[in-house]
Amino acid sequence: MNMLKRSTSLVVLAILLQSNAVVHAAKGDKATEAALTTEIQNRELADANTNTALQSEITARKSADESLAKSISEISLTPGPKGETGDTGSQGIQGEQGIQGEQGIQGDTGIDGQDGAKGDTGQTGQTGQTGSIGSIGSEGQAGPAGVDAPDRTTELCALYQTLFDNNYIGDLTVPTYCDVATSTYSVGDTGPAGGIVFYVTDGGLHGLEAARSDSGSATWGCSGKNIPGADGLLIGTGAQNTTDIVSECNTPFSSAIAARLASLNGLIVDGWFLPSWAELNEMYITIGMGVGNVGGFASEDYWSSSASACVTNPFANFTLCSAWAQSFGDGTQKGLLRQTLAKVRAVRAF
Description:
Oligomer: single chain
Radius of gyration: 73 Å
Strand content: 5-15%
Largest sheet: 4 strands, antiparallel
Number of helices: 6
Number of strands: 9
Distance between the termini: 157 Å
C-alpha cells in the first residue's frame, strides 16, 4: 500500500516538474530545469531502493509464518480440565417421525391382576322360545257339585215361537219339548207381515206375501248400465235381484228407483223386495185381475226386478237398457226402457 502511494507521488511530482520546466523553458531558465531533472532522478533511485527493501521484508515474513505453522502442527496438545456444564438450551423444533421399527418379540404373560368390582346388572334379554308341552299331569280331585241352573224352558220356547211367526226360523230345529204353533197359510190369507199371501210351498209353511198397496210409481234405474246378478227370472230370485240393483245403481237419483222403494216398504218388519218376472206373474194370476183383483192393483204396468237386454248404439255412443214389466190390465209381460215410469208393489218371503 505504501509503495503505491510513493509511486503516485512521483508521478504527480514529475507532472509538476514538467509543467514548471515548460514554464521556465519558456522563460529561458535552463539552470532551474537541470536542477529539477536531477531531483527526479534522485527520487526514482530512492523509491527503487525502498521497493527492494520491502520485497525482502515480505519474503522474510513469509518464511517466518511457514516456520511458525510447522512448529504449531508439531505441538502435542494436552486437554485442560473440563469446565462446568452450561445452561440447557431451548428445545429445538421436533423432527419428523422416523419409520416404525419391527415389532419386538412378545414378552412373557404377566401375573393375573385382582378381580375388578362387579358391574351393574345388564338389561333383561328377550324371552326365549316356548318350550315343548310337558306331559299331562295326574287328574285332580273332583270339585264340589255346581248349583243347578234356573229353568229357562218357557222363555226359550217363546223365542222359537216368535222366530217361527216372523218367518225367521230358517233351518233351525224346534226342540221336541217346545209346543210351537206352526201356522200354515193359504193364498189370499194375511201373511206374517200383514200382506196378502199369493204363493205357498211346504204345505203352507212358507211362501210369498204382497204388500196391500203400491209403493208408488218410479223408473227402474241404471238406464244405461248392465247389472250382473239382477237377471233372475224364477220364483225365489227377486230378493237377490233387488240387492244387486240397489248396490249397483248408486247415482244421485237412485233413491227413487223401483227396487229401493220396494225394499223400504216395511217399517216394522223388513225383508221386502221387488218381485222377479215369475213372482210378478204369480201375483197377477192369484190375487190380481185373474181372480177379482184381491190385491187392489191398478190396470197399469208393474215393474219386476228382472233385468232385460242392453243395446249400444255405435254411432251415437250411448246404451239403452230395458227390464221386465207386466200389465195388470191384460197380463202382458214385456220389456220396458228403464227410464219409463211404472207401478211398484213390494213382496216378502216367509
